[in-house]
Amino acid sequence: MRRRDVLLAGLCLPFLAACGRDEDAVRVDLSRREEPVLRQPPRAVTYAYLPQYAHTVSYERHRLLLDYIGRATGIPLRQVFPDTFEEHVRMVERGEIDISFSNPFAYIRMAASGARAFARIIEPSGKPDFRSQIICRRDNKELKTLADCRGKRWMAVDPSSAGGYIYALGEFYDNGIRRSDFAEISFAPGPGGKQEKVVLAVFAGACDIGSVRDGTLEILRGRIDLSQIRILAESKSYPGWVYGARAGFSPEIVEKIARAMFALRYDRPDDAAILSAAGMRGIIPAVDADYDSVRRLAEKLGLDALPGGEE
Amino acid sequence: MIPRLSALSFRTKINCGIVLIVGLIAIPLAYLTWRAAAESLQTETRKRGLVLSENLAMRVSDAMLSMDLLRMKNMVDELKKVDDISYAFILDRQGSVLVHTFSGGFPVELAEVNAPDGPKPHIRLLDTGRELIDDFAAPVTIVGTPFGTARIGLSRTKAEAAADRLALMIVFYSAAAMVAALAPSTLFARRVTERINRLKRHAEEVVRGNLDPRAGPDAARACSVMLDCDKTRCPAYGDNRRRCWLTASPDQRGEGPESCRDCPVYREQKGDEIQDLAETFDVMAVSLKTHLDELRRAERVLSRQERLLRTILDATPDLVCLVDENARYLAVNRAFANFLGQTSEAIVGASDREVYPEDEGEAMHEENRRVLAAGRPSDREVRLRRGGSPVWFHVVRVPVVDGSGRVIGLLRTARDVTQLKQFQEQLIQSQKMESLGKLAGGVAHEINTPLGVILGYSQLLQEDVPGGSQIQADLQTIEKQAKVCRKIVADLLGFSRQAESAKIEMCFNNSLMEAITLVRHALSLEKVVIATDLDERMPIIYGDPEKLKQVWINLLSNASDALEGRGGTLLVRSRLFAHEQKVTAWFADDGPGISPDNVGRIFDPFFTTKPVGQGTGLGLSVSFGIIKDHGGSIRVETPAPEGFFDALDDPGNDRPGTVFVVDLPLDHEETIGGGLPANATEA
């Protein structure tokens, strides 16, 4: 009898051990419903960074600068995130972006709609201008000069990207290479992070050559083996990124913001943190005429005729 | 009513066992698997939920920055397409719902019930009343800044339903396995049961006494063929019906099956346990049959011997019985049972006190006790009463001892010696009579002379007295009585063989007829008719005519006396039996016969049933002596044989009658009478 009890207990043990629930459920009534109403954000000066990177990167870069400007001027600023260059331009034209931080080519398109430059940055290189880099894989033996790019597959950042496409295109143009000379010209897919995508495409061998603005490779340092990337050529330098205020935006506010920007000094650690995060060394005053060289390049390449930078 | 387990059929037991085994394996397995799967699925669900929610939080950050509601909506809607995802929605940093997958409005309570645990996602189990949902809240963080929350609800009920399906599947497959196992188990059980039933039928046949059927199968080849064995005297030689390791002689198979393990015959013919049992059973049946046959033979011999013994015991007229140490009967023979007028079965177990009359039984019992106690045989004559007459027995008691010499009973033999006793008495009487005869002879011889003188003188005196005078009459009386006396004396002398016998050849019939003629007239006065039936062959014998005539007259007057004066018929018949060299005469009367008590004594001298003064009791005795003297015999038959008087015209009355039969030898060849055919000796 005793042995039988033990046997029975042994048989039942796994069942007993497996019984019971280890947590309590919170009772929720899903029947009470209402349609949510989205809260309107408070009024603020809208600030946008031409989406050459992912929104989060854009946010990360300019978050401190916006905080600084807000603190320095007392004017509330809100960063907005257009998905494409084209949308950025259109938003400036529509007045949805008050302060635009864009590349020179985008600027000349926005300037055509009345936007006016009021500041430009000193590039991380320490110069107020930048260039396009034409890159290929280090192990690509066929590519030694620009002329070798004929018949190759080229991936650029965006049709409206200055450093990522147009400057490089100008460089090819100057070297007698036309777009039709390439086997294929493709653009980095998807929104944001396009410069990096081009580097990754070259690295992966998805294309033979790529064009990015200078400084892009540094962003990817540590994520890919940069030694596998070779810079085949660089374009001429053009003025760097520019801050422009939309047409009709209050000059006083622009003035306040510009002053706060100009006050940043890279040799001050706090300012340096802000400037470094934004990928610049400083902000200096600018006028529309600084970008005439860019306008000329656009004309040379016949880009004006195509609104939206689609060539 | 549930049948007892032991009463269930073997097949049912096997099937129940299979079902029980599969059940005992499958049910806990299914349960444990279900639990494990449920837990594993739950864990996996949590992991997946975390991944999905964190992934959503990450993917949604760009769209959130640009407030791209469409992209966000697409993201949550894509998630909703997954089966077990109940819902997905995104809250901004103020907790406002940006997009959600619910239709018909957002459940207000849901937004508040779960929130990220700082930078980490948080899981909370929700009970909606209809199902359990694991709610995952992952923070949407951009550069360390919380921008909102991504929320996903995974239905635990649906995950558990998958586990349930798994358990159900296990149960289903277990049931299928059970059914699949039942088929071969049923076949197997049927095979086993059939073989057991065959054995059972075989056993029943054996119980009924039929030992010939066999339960085991035949082998293809006998061991002697396989091993090329020439031991023809071995019981297993050439026998493919039984296994040699069971039947072979001990020197052939050694220690039995154990030592046969490596033998090719054993390896080829060895079956499973049931076949072993059946084969052993066959051998047992054969062995049993052999033993039974031996037993029957022994029984027949024993029974025959018993029958012989019983016949001997029953045939013997002695009363034989075996008595145990408590003086109770163990066995009795038929004569004993007949004597007591009881059956043997009734006597066995009883004691002398119970089967004999009180006084006799006690004496017998005491004697038994003495013999049992003393251990020595006893031998004595006892007198018992049976049917009013005394019976004498010579009883011998012999003690019966066992191997250790202890007396365990006694054998008692009782022989009826009544007749012997009577013979003894007769012998004494005869000796007495012989002495008396000699004495009487002497006396008669002495008396004869004076009697002659008396007779002579009385006759002389008659001549001297005038005729017709009183004196002459008195003298005649003296003469007459003297003649009577001379007759008595002559009888006495004849009895005592003192008279001379003068034998001549004589005609037997004439002798008879002379006697008949002499008495016929006298007897007719007593209404006695004498009928004769004499052999026509006129047998001649060698004898004393006078003495024989005296015998015939004695027998005729004796017969006449038997009729007691009431008249009747006497039949005298004579027959010659030539081949037996004898002639026989019958003297029959149809009187009342002789009582059985007197039959044995009628030839005794001086035995008479007549009143005193009417007979001397010497007639038959003298006749006996005369016939004996002639080398013949005389005997009496009473009542007369059936149909003896049928030859008469008037068979007379119904009285039993008495016949005296006298046989006389034909001493001489010539007395037979020449020329008579041998086959004419019978009348």
Q: Total helix count of chain B?
A: 18
Rounded average pLDDT of chain A: 85
Count of discrete domains of chain B: 4
Class by SSE composition of chain B: alpha+beta
Strand order of the largest sheet of chain A: 4-3-5-14-6-15
How many domains comprise the coordinates of chain A? 2
- Spatial strand sequence of the major β-sheet of chain B: 2-1-6-5-4
Helix percentage of chain B: 40-55%
Mean pLDDT of chain B equals 83
**Unreliable segments of 5+ consecutive residues of chain B:** 669-683
Q: Helical region count of chain A?
A: 10
How is this structure best described in words?
The complex is a heterodimer of chains A (311) and B (683). Chain A has 311 residues and is α/β, with parallel strands linked by helices. Helix content of chain A is 36%, strand content 20%. Chain A contains ten helices and 15 strands. Chain A has helices at residues 2-17, 55-73, 85-94, 104-112, 162-174, 194-204, 216-219, 251-262, 269-277, 292-301, and strands at 26-27, 33-34, 45-49, 77-80, 99-102, 116-122, 129-130, 132-137, 153-156, 184-187, 209-213, 229-234, 238-239, 242-245, 282-285. In chain A, the strands form three sheets. Chain A has a six-stranded mixed sheet with strand order 4-3-5-14-6-15, with helices on both faces. Chain A has a five-stranded mixed sheet with strand order 10-9-11-8-12. In chain A, helix 2 links the parallel strand 3 and strand 4 (77-80). In chain A, helix 2 (55-73) runs antiparallel to helix 9 (269-277), helix 3 runs parallel beside helix 4 (104-112) and helix 5 (162-174) crosses helix 10 (292-301). The longest helix of chain A is centred in the first third of the chain and has 19 residues, at 55-73. In chain A, 44% of the residues are buried. Chain B has four domains: 10-166, 2-Layer Sandwich (Beta-Lactamase), CATH 3.30.450.20; 316-416, PAS domain (Beta-Lactamase, 2-Layer Sandwich), CATH 3.30.450.20; 423-495, Helix Hairpins (Orthogonal Bundle); 504-680, Histidine kinase-like ATPase, C-terminal domain (Heat Shock Protein 90, 2-Layer Sandwich). Helix content of chain B is 49%, strand content 19%. Chain B has helices at residues 10-65, 69-81, 156-207, 223-227, 244-247, 250-253, 264-269, 273-315, 334-340, 344-347, 352-355, 358-374, 418-464, 470-495, 508-524, 545-562, 596-599, 619-629, and strands at residues 85-92, 97-100, 106-107, 122-127, 132-142, 145-155, 319-324, 329-332, 378-386, 389-401, 407-416, 504-507, 528-533, 540-543, 568-577, 582-589, 633-637, 658-665. In chain B, strands 2-1-6-5-4 form a five-stranded antiparallel sheet. A five-stranded antiparallel sheet of chain B has the order 8-7-11-10-9, with helices on both faces. The radius of gyration of chain B is 66 Å and the shape is rod-shaped. Residues 669-683 of chain B have low confidence and may be disordered. At the A-B interface, helix 1, strand 1, strand 2 and helix 2 of A face helix 1, strand 2, strand 3, strand 4 and strand 5 of B.
